[in-house]
User: Fold Alpha-1,4 glucan phosphorylase from Bifidobacterium mongoliense DSM 21395.
Amino acid sequence: MTEYTAPKASITSAAFTDEIREQLRYTQGVTPEQATAADVYVATAAAVRRHLMDAWMTTQHDMVTGSTKAVGYFSAEFLMGKQLRNALLNAGLSDQFDDAVKALGCDARDVIDAEYEPGLGNGGLGRLAACYIDSLASKGVPAFGYGIQYRYGIFRQEFDEQGRQVERPDYWLANEEPWGHIDYNRSQRVGFGGVVTGKDDVRTWEPAWCVRAVPVDYMVPGYESGRVNTLRLWSARSYDEFDLLTFNRSGYLAAVKPQVKAENISKILYPEDSTPQGKELRLEQQYFFTAASIHDAIRVFYPGQEHPDLTTLPDKICFQLNDTHPVIGIPELMRVMIDEYGYDWDTAWRTTTACFNYTCHTLLPEALEVWPASLIGSLLPRHLEIIKEIDRRFVAQLKTLTDDAEKIDRMRIVTLAADGKEPKVRMAYLATAGGSHVNGVAALHSELLKDVTLRDFSDVFGDKFTNVTNGVTPRRFVKLANPRLSDLITDGLGTDRWVSHLDMLKELVPLAKDDAFVRRFAEVKQANKVDFAAYARREYGFEIDPNTMINSMVKRLHEYKRQSLKILAVISQYADIKSGRVAAEDIVPRTVVFGAKAAPGYRMAKLTIRLINNVARVINADPDVKGRLSVYYPWNYNIRLAEHLIPATDLDEQISQAGKEASGTGNMKFALNGALTVGTLDGANVEIRELVGPENFFLFGMTVDEVEALYDKGYQPSSYYDADPRLKQAVDMVSDGTFSDGDRGVYKPLTSDWLNKDYFMTMADFSAYMDIQGEIETLYRDPLEWNRKALLNVANSGYFSSDRAIDDYLANIWKTGPMD
Ligand code: 26W
Assistant:
C-alpha cells in the first residue's frame, strides 16, 4: 500500500494569529482586546476547521467516487474528549497555536480549558470508538462514525458531605459548540409504531409517528494523512407537522405531545454500562440512529439514484456493530431492501450478512441485550416480523447442520414462549446470525466468547469468530497527554515517526540498558508527577506529594473490577501502621488515586464510592500515617483527568476477577506511559504481560480455570476472612464504624455481601494481592530498576496502538484499506 501524505500546513504563526483575530472580529464580534479565553477558543476552533475544510471535502469526494470500500462504525457512544488540541495536532498547527495565544495575550491552558468536554459515552466502549475513528482517518481509510448527538452526556459526578455520589445533568451544549456542523438538508425520516398491512410477500409498514434525524457532522482529522473523515451524530427533531385531528378533539397540548416525544429520543445518554434496562426509549435511540445511518449510507453511495443496485452495497461500505446496541440495523437493512426497494428475501439476506459485522465487548451475561418481542412489536412491528422470519429460517438451517434439538432451542434468536415467559429477542444472537464476523476484544476474551458465551454458535459457525485485541490512539494518549515522554522517545529513536508507527517503540528496548537514558526517563515521570500535583491542587484542592508513589485505579465502578479489593488493601495497610505492626518509615510512601463513576441505580457500586471517600477522609486526616499513605478520589473522572493522571502514574491497578474484564484499555494507556501494572490474568492484561515480559508485570490472583473450579467446588468467602487476619481486620474496620463515624449499619450491605456471597471472589484473591505488595515496594525502593522496567513497558507496548487494531480489522474483517 502506498502511503498518501499531504503536505503539513505551512502557515506561519503570524498568519494563524491573524486568522484567529479575524474570526474574533467578524464571527464573534469582539476585538482581540475584549476577547476572553472562551472567545479565543471558539475563534481558534473556527480557524482550525477552515484549515481542515478542503481536506474534508476532498476526502468525501474521493470516498464517493473512488473504489475503496468504506467503513461505517455504528456506535451508540463516542467518547471523544476535548477536540481543540487534537485538531491542532492533526492540522499541523500546534506550534502556531502556542505562538498565537501568546501574541493575543492569553494563556494556552485557559483557551484549552474553555472547551467543555463532550461526554457522549460511558467508558471503554465509547472511548474505543473514538480511538478507532482517529486511526481510520490517520490511515486514510474512508470511514464514517455513526452515532447519536445526545443533548445530555454522561452525568457530572459530585460527592456530598457524606461521600456519596450525586449525579448532575451534563448539559454540554449550554455554550457555543464550534465543532459540530448541523446539516438540515441531509436529514432522514425515521418511523415508529403503527401497523403492517398487505399480503405475505408485499408488506407495507405505516408508522404511527415519525422523527426527523438531523445529522450533526464532526471532522475527524487524520494525523499526517491529509484526510479528514466524518463523525455523523444524529439529533432528533420533530417534524413541523401538527396532528389536526387530535388538536380538534383534545386540544393543543395533546397534539404537540408527539413532537415532544420525538425530541426526547436524543436527549440523554443512558448511564448504565453493563445492565441494560430494557427501556423503550433506549430501543428508540438504537433504531433511530441505525435507521438514519443506513439510509444515509445509501444516499451517499448512490447519489440521486431512484433504483440503486443495493446488491453492490457490501462493495461500497461495511457496517461494524459496536456491541449489540446497533443490532436492530440488521432487520432494518432487510426491511429497506425488501419493502422499499423490492428485493426478494434471499438477495436481501445475502447483502445484509455481507454488510454487517459484530464486536462483542463483554462476558457478563447480564450485559447482553435482550428485548421483549412485544416491545419490538409495538415500536417496530415490521422489524419483529422480519426478526421472526430470520429466526424461522435460522432454525431450519440449524436443523440441516445438527440433530441436537436442545442446542437448536438454545440458539434461537427469538426465545420460545414457555412457562408463561414471554418471547424475547436476543440481540447478540441476531448479530451473530446476521453478520459475517464476530470478534472479541482481547485474545482471552475471544477465546471465552467461543468457549462460553457464544459456544453453540462457534460450534456451528466457527469461521465467523475472530479476535481483534483493542488498541488506543498514541496521538491523544501519548503525544498530546505526555509531551515530555514524547520528546524523550523521539530523542531516543531519532525520529517522531513512532507517533503513527507505534511498533517502533521496540527500538527503545536496548536503551533500557543505558542507565543515563533510564534516568532521563525517571525525570520525565517525576516532572509529570509534579504537574499532576499542581493540577490536583488547582482543580480539586488536593495536596498530593509528588515524591510518593502514585498508584491509580481509574475505570467505571463495578463489582467485577473489584475496587473493593483495592480499598480493603488500603485499609489493611493503614491498620498495619496504626497497630504498630509495621513502622510507618518502613512502608513506601504512596498516594492512592481512585477515579470512577457508578451507574445511578447500582447500589453496591454507590456504596463502594461512599466507602472509598470515607476511607480517604479518615486516612488523610490521621497524623500517624501522614506522608506515608494518602487516598484521593477526584470526582467526575473523565478524559481530561485521565490525560493528566496517566502520565504521572507509577503503578496501575487492573485487578478484575479473571474472566470478567473483556479487554480493558486503560491498562494499555498506563503501560504506554510508563506505569507498571499490578493485575490479574484477565482481558488484555494477559497480552500486556506477555509482551512486556512477566518480570516487568506484577501478576497475582486466580486464573479463569481456578475461578471456575472454585465456583464448582462451592465458594465460601467467609473461610478466607477466617484464614487471613489482615483480611479479617480490614473487613471488621468497615463494619465497626471506623469509616462511618461509629455508625455500624452504613456498610452492612457491602460487608455482608463480601462474607456471604462475594460473587467476584474479592476475599479469595485478597491474600495474593497483599503478598505482591511486598514485591512492589522492594522494587520501588530501587528507582533505577523500577524505571528500567517502566521503560520496558513503554518499549514493548507499541502493539496496543489503535492503528494496529485497525490494521487487524482491515485485514481480517473489513477487507479494505486506505484510499488511493
Ligand atoms: C446498558 C447496556 C450496556 C451493556 C454493555 C451498555 C454498555 C456496555 C458496554 C459493552 C460496556 C463496556 O464499555 N465494555 C468495555 O468495552 C471495552 C472496549 O472493548 C473493554 O475494554 C472493556 O473491558 C469492556 O468492559
Remarks:
- The chain has three domains: 1-65+83-116, 66-81+117-470+806-814, 478-800.
- Residues 122-125, 128, 272-274, 276, 323, 361-362, 367, 441, 470, 661-665, 683 surround 26W (CB under 6 Å).
- The first strand starts at residue 70 and ends at 74.
